[in-house]
Amino acid sequence: MTDTKQLRIGILGTGAIGGFYGAKLVQAGFEVHFLARSEYAALKSNGLRIEGPEQAVLQLDDIHVWSDVEEMPTCDWVLVAAKTTSNVHLAPLINRMTQSGGKVVLMQNGLAVEDELRTLLRDDIHLLGGLCFICVHRDEPGVVIHQAYGGVNLGYHSGPNTTLEQGRAIAEQGAQLFVQAGLDSQAIGLEKARWQKLVWNVPYNGLSVLLDTTTGALMKHAVSRALIEAIMQEVVQAATACGQDLPDTIVAAMLKSTERMPDYHPSMYHDFALQRPLELDAIYRAPIAAAKVAGVRMPKTEMLLQSLEFLTLP
């Protein structure tokens, strides 16, 4: 087991994902530091509150929160919980937050999100991807609504003089942090895991925006459910063409899992409602491009992208 007193963890992005996982790590006894520029005042005054299922509440009144990266201590692990649309601008902050030889985990959706950021990070930093399986949203600054789930899987991307075996060992170390926080977590192959998450993200994120609806409503009607299943199968076929064979049961399992979920607005729905940039590159353009290189088209996914592009025209 990792000695919680010997590790310092940084959280970059204190919305739903950063707030939830940061709070769980604090509760487990880790020293956690939150960089919260726009939400600093709320977190400093009111702390961090996680409202969970069945009226469970985790209230943290005394947390390490910083508004200026230059004032905060460097960290052994840095969890990046901001949207992929801001990664380029976050690179200087990540470099400043991370100690020499530290580990950075991109807790983000989409494909190949690590590739662009890798070139902007210091060579001594280890870079990982984190795939979060959770229903969560931010209600207001410092208040996170956790509806269901919470598992997070880690995959190693790149780092200094690291073999595949060493990379997996680092991912396993990271997974153990979350296990100690009471969450399901394991080390996985990163590219396959990102394609697996896209099987869910591609249909539900886009359709929730285009149809102004929730996962529950989408699953209720046969016509929308059939469309979701067809898009999922398209993503699975693209993954296979790209050399990432996903389980034969993945589509049925994800449909069944979504049926059990509470009624939920995916993250892209909230981004669109709040007029924030949508993660179209990571969730749509990157897999479409990868599939095209592999000789496969994704026509339904392309239609979703084109429709979302129209909705976000200036």
Automatic annotation (TrEMBL):
Domain Ketopantoate reductase C-terminal, by residue range, is: 191-309
Catalysis performed (reactions)? (R)-pantoate + NADP(+) = 2-dehydropantoate + NADPH + H(+)
Q: Which UniProt keywords apply?
A: Kinase, NADP, Oxidoreductase, Pantothenate biosynthesis, Transferase
One Pfam family, please name it. ApbA
Q: Name one GO molecular function term.
A: kinase activity
Q: What is its EC number?
A: 1.1.1.169
Involved pathway(s):
Cofactor biosynthesis; (R)-pantothenate biosynthesis; (R)-pantoate from 3-methyl-2-oxobutanoate: step 2/2
All residue ranges annotated as the Ketopantoate reductase N-terminal domain in the record: 9-158
The cross-references to PANTHER family, in alphabetical order and at most eight, read: 2-DEHYDROPANTOATE 2-REDUCTASE, PROBABLE 2-DEHYDROPANTOATE 2-REDUCTASE
Q: What job does this protein perform?
A: Catalyzes the NADPH-dependent reduction of ketopantoate into pantoic acid.
Query: What does the similarity note say?
Result: Belongs to the ketopantoate reductase family.
Q: What is this protein called?
A: 2-dehydropantoate 2-reductase
What is the organism field in this record? Thiopseudomonas acetoxidans
